Amino acid sequence: MDRIFGRRSSLLALGLLGLLVLGPLAIVSPLAAALALTLAAALAALLSHRRATALTRRCDKLSAEFDVLAKRLIRLESGASSAPVAPAAEPAADAAALATGIEEVTVEIGLLSGIVRDLASVVATQDGEIARLKAEAQAPRPSPQPLPQPAPAVAAVPMPAPAAIVAVAPPVRPAALTPRPIPPLPLPRAPEPEDFHGPVVAVPAGAGTSRQNARESARESALVAAFDRDGLEVHLQPVVVLPQRRVVSYEALARLRVEGELLPPEAFLPVLERHGRTTDLDRRMLQRVATIARHLAGRGSEAAVAYGLSPLSLYEPGFLRSLVRLVAAESGLAGRIVVALPQASWRNLDAEQVAALAALRGRIGFTLDRPTDLRFDAVSLAERGVAQVKVPADLLLRQAPGQGHLSDIAVEDLVAALARAGIRLVACAVEHEGDVPDLIDLDVPFAQGSVFAAPRAVRADVLAAAPAPPPPPADEPEPPPQRRPFRDFLRRAS
């Protein structure tokens, strides 16, 4: 009671003083009483404002302390999840290692058994075909029938070309030809058979398919020629922070100009993959990305430039080491180049690729994009250096009723689950303005799409201003070939 009265003593004192003074004064001088009441109200408001300000400061301080406590809890959770588990007894560890080795050998034996079965079925099919061909070759051929003799007479009959061809071609229907009377008069007409050679040669069975294949081959040749003639262009699309829509980074997108037409990656990437040129595309794009990052750094911008690699480039020998040489020459490029890999590539990395990516950590940023589902192992991705995860807006906001299996947690908790591991979510392919409030409601920190800005071509003077990257050292020895598990060979073959 004393504490309550002590906190409100000033207000109570003012209230009693006003009652004792203003009561008699209101009787004597109502005007003076009204003025005194106004002053007392102003004084009370001033005291209330001071007290509210003090309470606000205390609340802010308490909120900051809670924030520090929450950060400490997050660090403790991440440390506890990444801390190595204390090894058990030595026999138990040996038994677990033995069981793991036996399981791997069993899986590889199963894969080998499947390959052997497929190979056996193919060999059996080929043996059957060979036996059939031998039987047909050894079988006695029927004696020649006098079918070719009436062919000129049939060809000389004035009838449509297809009917004449059908009458001559099948050797199994002699009865259809023998009863037909042979007119004597059309025999001298020698030029007539030439009329039937034209249609037979000009309209073969696969003529349409051949022409289509020829057009496709010419189209592919034009695409590869445009790629070799430096028809490759770089377009930049910004990544913005929500809800301010301030640009924080860019993504470099490849475009190919073929005979004045600008093609997206979906139109020329399959052709380059069939010709084995995707690694050349990634090398050229990364060199231009480094040039753009150098230009942005010269202008004082902190924005990074990201580029999505092809999964096939990871299996190219020396490709990841070339990334190390690309950023090792200039320390100012550290952290300004971001490499994006598909979700399937992050899940199927082998030991050599993990080691190569670990050597790039701290120099090049990593991003997961092109996801097939929303099952992200945030702790594992954070250990490999992934700082961002790109998910299409439709996958976040408009999941089909039968696609509930795409995620193990609710979409509303996905951002918080990734943030606890230090990974930021980027909503890409945002095409509708109505999706932006929904993304803000999900606490998505970054977004990218045509709603904010369409991809724009980089000026030629920007790409030509920077010096060319230094060539790789000639005396650098090629590392010896490493022995890979048979499982990696099977995965690549599939």
Describe the structure.
The chain has 494 residues and is of the alpha/beta class. It contains 19 helices and 10 strands. It has helices spanning 2-7, 9-28, 30-82, 90-138, 150-156, 161-168, 194-202, 207-228, 265-274, 278-298, 319-328, 343-347, 351-360, 378-383, 393-397, 414-420, 435-441, 460-465, 486-493, and strands spanning 232-241, 246-258, 261-263, 304-308, 337-342, 365-369, 386-392, 424-428, 446-447, 456-457. It has an 8-stranded mixed barrel. Helix 2 (9-28) packs antiparallel against helix 3 (30-82) and helix 11 packs parallel to helix 13 (351-360). The radius of gyration is 40 Å and the shape is elongated. The termini are far apart. 17% of the residues are buried. Residues 146-203 and 468-478 have low confidence and may be disordered.
